[in-house]
Amino acid sequence: MGREFAGKVAAVTGGSSGIGRACAKLLAAQGAKVYLMARSRERLAAAVEEIARAGGQAEAVQVDVTSGEQLAEAAAFLEKAEGRVDVLLAGAGIMELGPVSELSYDLFEAMMRVNYFGVVETVRRFLPLVQKGEFKRIGIISSLAAKISPPYFSAYSASKAAVAGFAHALRQELAPQGIRVVLIHPGPAATPLVDGYLGGRYYPLPPGVPVVSPEHVARAALKAIRKGRREVFVPRRLALTAWLAGVVPGAVDLTYKLVGRGK
After folding, report:
1. CA of 258: how far to CAs of 45, 52, 147, 210, in Å?
2. Which residues of 239-259 are buried (b: 16+ CB within 10 A; e: fewer)?
3. Beta-bridge partner residues of 46
4. Contact, 198 vs 154, CB < 8 A?
5. How many angstroms separate the CA atoms of 167 and 172, rounded?
6. Which of 115, 142, 203, 240 could be bridged to 197 by S-S, CB 3.0 to 4.6 A?
7. Would you give per-residue pLDDT tens digits along the chain (263 residues)?
8. Kindly report the CA angle at 184 between 162 and 173, in degrees rounded to 5?
9. Which residues are 89's β-sheet partners?
10. What is the pTM of this model?
11. Is residue 244 a contact partner of residue 147, using CB atoms and an 8 Å limit?
12. How many Cα atoms within 13 Å fall on the side-chain side of residue 62?
C-alpha cells in the first residue's frame, strides 16, 4: 500500500464506525496521523486500537457534531496538538426510513441536525485549521440519496440534498484559497447505518444496484480527495444513474414502483 498521505494530519468525523472508520483506517495506513471524532468513547477506542495494531497513528476525540461548542473544543485541541489539518473528512451521519406519516418531526429535525448542520458546523469550526494545512482538502460524505430519492427516504434524502448544495457552494467559495472540496456520494453500503433496512420494505434494491463495502467507499473517497476531484459516486457507474434520475425522474418512480411490487 502506498504512503500517499505520509506526514499529513487528518480529522474524521463519524470515525468510529462505517465509512468514516474505513476512511480513518486507510488514511492511517497511507501515512496520515488521524484524529477520529465521534460520540461513542468505546467505539472510538476500538477504532484507535485497530489502527495502532496495524502500525498507524490515531487519536480519539469524543465529540457530538450537533454541538458547536464540542466541535470548537475539538478544533482547539487539534490547533494545540498539530497547528493544522491537511484533510478534513465530514463523515458523521444517521438514517431513519419510513412513511412520512409515521416519521415524527423530531426525526426529520434530528437527521438535519446530524447530517446537514453537523457538516456545516464541522467545516466552520475546522476551516481555520484547513487554511493552515499543507494539503488543504475537505471531503464531505453525502449519498446517492441526495440525487435519487426512493420512497420512504424523505427525511434522509432531504438532509443529504442539503449537504450536496452546501458542498457545491463551498467548493467554489474556497477554491481561490487553494482548498479543494470533494463531495462523495456512496450508493448502498454495508454499514451499521443500514442495519435492519437494506433489502427490506423501506430500502429495496433495484436489480443491478450493488451493495459495496465501507472499504470500497474509503478507497474511492481517498483517491478523489488526493486528486482533488469535485464529486465522485461509488461505484462510479452510479453517476450515470444519478444523471438519468435528474433528466427523467419518472424512470425512478417506475423503477421503485416495480421493485415495490416484488415485495
Report:
1. 44, 47, 20, 18
2. bebbeebeeeeeebeebbeeb
3. none
4. no
5. 9
6. 203
7. 578 999 999 999 999 999 999 999 999 999 999 999 999 999 999 999 999 999 999 999 999 999 999 999 999 999 999 999 999 999 999 999 999 999 999 999 999 999 999 999 999 999 999 999 999 999 999 999 999 999 999 999 999 999 999 999 999 999 999 999 999 999 999 999 998 898 889 998 888 788 999 999 999 999 999 999 999 999 998 898 888 888 888 877 888 788 765 45
8. 60
9. 12, 139
10. 0.94
11. no
12. 7
- Note whether 187 and 240 are within 8 A (CB): no
C-alpha cell at 164: 450536496
What is the rounded distance in angstroms from the CA atom of residue 103 to the CA atom of residue 214? 27
Separation between Cα atoms, residue 2 and residue 166, nearest integer Å? 32
Label residues 44-63 b or e (16+ Cβ within 10 Å = b). Answer: beebbeebeeeebbbbbbbb
Question: 6 is written with which cell numbers?
Answer: 505520509
Q: Which letter does DSSP use for residue 198 in this model?
A: B
Reply yes or no on whether 202 is catalytic: no
Give the strands of the sheet with 57-62, arranged side by side: 57-62, 33-38, 9-13, 87-90, 137-141, 180-186, 231-234
Angle, CA of 233, 234 and 239, to the nearest 5°: 35
CB 12 within 8 A of CB 24: yes
The catalytic residue among 116, 152, 156, 197 is 156
CA neighbours closer than 13 Å in the CB half-sphere of residue 6: 4
Q: What are the structural domains, with CATH classification, of the chain?
A: 9-261 (3.40.50.720)
